[in-house]
TrEMBL record:
Keyword field contains Cell membrane: no
Documented EC number(s): 3.1.-.-
Organism this protein belongs to: Aporhodopirellula aestuarii
Keyword tags: Exonuclease, Hydrolase, Ligase, Nuclease
Domain of life: Bacteria
Name of the featured protein: Ligase-associated DNA damage response exonuclease
Length: 345
């Protein structure tokens, strides 16, 4: 697909007037990055431009010789005649929508985003535009998220019940973004909070950026005989079913993911509980975002893009499916999210 501002290429979304790529699939000279997850911030580019709030997360995982430039939300920079600015996407710390303006035309690339409140990142903001590029990870009517506080209460109730049964809870969430959101929702009065090493690494970047998280203890800093009864361990999904779990004694396990909204997902993940927690828009939020941005054209990528595009067309909007990027093994529906770059689900 081609617009007057951006076009799709085998390397991802490209802005020819500015000669840069947005979330490129492979190393390029100049990359504009929406957030620090590995399927958006590719290693190996020469120069990176990103939102200032993502600095600590990006520096944590990128090559040291890369050239970075960070821009505060809402501040514009001109790249070869194209005005580029970052605006909150609500997906995770530092996540941004990229707004491009060139010769009176405005395009907005959402990256990954969600609506609603999240104490660990800035909330999504609607941006008027001619072209909107939206993800559709959960672009089916079945995906509808509960109120954040309702889900947080359910997680804390599960932890409290497990503690009273003499168990240790193990809650799985991706290392950067999802885990910190989960930590912020936990009630520390119930018991001690422990973390997997990859999660603690993400915590460090969040704390350096000024995000308030409850006190946590890295599991690896404790003796092998430590008693974890009554506590909760926030870990990455790839730890499930591994020998690492043995040190916690009797456990109750749970997965926090948008996929838990579908019957059978918990069974496939082999966990005791499933909590519907996603850092992506659900069906009604996606439609609301399009309505608020009110673009002339919508490009839909990743997920149920054909379904979303067809529905928008039925509503009278011009909508097209594009293939702007490939997903990494650390995607929400991947099982290998073992590092800090693992994508939020």
């Amino acid at each position: 697909m081609i617009s007057s501002i951006i076009q799709t290429t085998d390397r991802g979304l490209y802005c020819p007037a500015g000669d840069f790529y947005i979330d490129p699939r492979s190393p390029v000279d100049r990359a504009v990055v929406t957030h620090a997850h590995t399927d958006h911030a590719r290693w190996g580019c020469k120069r990176y431009l990103a939102a200032q709030r993502s600095e600590h997360l990006l520096r944590m995982r990128m090559n040291h010789d890369a050239e970075f430039q960070f821009l505060p939300y809402g501040e514009s920079i001109k790249i070869d005649g194209v005005d580029v600015s970052f605006h909150p996407a609500g997906h995770m710390l530092g996540s941004a929508q990229v707004r491009l303006e060139h010769r009176g035309q405005v395009a907005v690339v959402t990256g990954d985003y969600k609506l609603g409140n999240d104490p660990t990142c800035e909330s999504w903001q609607p941006l008027s535009c001619h072209l909107l590029v939206t993800e559709s990870t959960f672009g089916l009517p079945v995906y509808r998220w509960e109120d954040e506080q309702t889900t947080a209460d359910a997680i804390n109730d599960w932890w409290r019940e497990s503690r009273d049964e003499g168990k240790c809870c193990v809650l799985y969430g991706y290392a950067a973004g999802k885990s910190q959101r989960l930590l912020a929702s936990l009630d520390p009065s119930i018991g001690p909070i422990y973390t997997h090493g990859a999660v603690e690494k993400g915590n460090e970047a969040y704390r350096k950026t000024g995000v308030d998280l409850p006190e946590t203890t890295f599991v690896g800093s404790l003796e092998r005989k430590h008693d974890f009864t009554g506590g909760i361990v926030v870990a990455v999904p790839s730890a499930n079913g591994t020998p690492w779990l043995r040190r916690f004694g009797r456990t109750s396990t749970a997965m926090a993911s948008g996929w838990m909204a579908v019957r059978g997902a918990r069974r496939r993940r082999a966990v005791d509980r499933g909590f519907v927690v996603s850092d992506h828009v659900d069906w009604p939020s996606l439609l609301k975002a399009v309505e608020l941005c009110d673009p002339e054209t919508v490009w839909v990528t990743h997920g149920y893009s054909a379904t979303v595009a067809r529905y928008l067309q039925e509503l009278g909007r011009e909508a097209h499916v594009i293939d702007s990027r490939t997903r990494s093994e650390n995607d929400e529906d991947g099982a290998q999210a073992s590092g800090v770059e693992g994508e939020g689900s």
